[in-house]
Design goal:
34 residues
Length: 34
C-alpha cells in the first residue's frame, strides 16, 4: 500500500467501499429472492 496517500483519500475510499457494500448487499438479496 502506498503510505504517501493522504488520510482524506483513505477515508473517502473506505466510505466508498462501505457505501458500495451497503448498496450491493440489498440488491443481491432482492435478485436472489426474485
Amino acid at each position: 500500500m502506498n503510505t504517501r496517500l493522504p488520510p482524506p483519500i483513505i477515508l473517502l475510499f473506505a466510505a466508498g467501499a462501505i457505501w458500495g457494500i451497503d448498496w450491493l448487499v440489498p440488491a443481491a438479496r432482492v435478485k436472489h429472492r426474485g
